Amino acid sequence: MAGSLTPRTVEACKMQGFDPTEIEFRDKTTMRLAWGDIPEEIFEVRWKAHEKQRQKDLKLVMAEREALGKKEEMRVSRSVNILKTSKMLKREEEQLEKLKLNN
Hints:
The chain is mainly α. Helices cover 79% and strands 0% of the residues. The protein has one domain (2-102). The chain is rod-shaped. The N and C termini lie far apart (70 Å).
């Protein structure tokens, strides 16, 4: 099931200590099969507790995912700035060379 999550979400799960399959939604039919034949009242209590915990875990993972996204944006921004600076320095060097040749 983790195949439906993005790579960044999977990374966020790992950073928070979750198996990615733990945060994916599972419908009641799937959970009924996983939990076996238990009384309906018990199933509903377990289902609600499971979903409540999953939602809490999901919030942690999504916050981590957002932080990872911001880190990536900052890294890319720094790389772009370095590239721009490098190009600017190269142009300045070329202009200095031209000035030296003209003198």
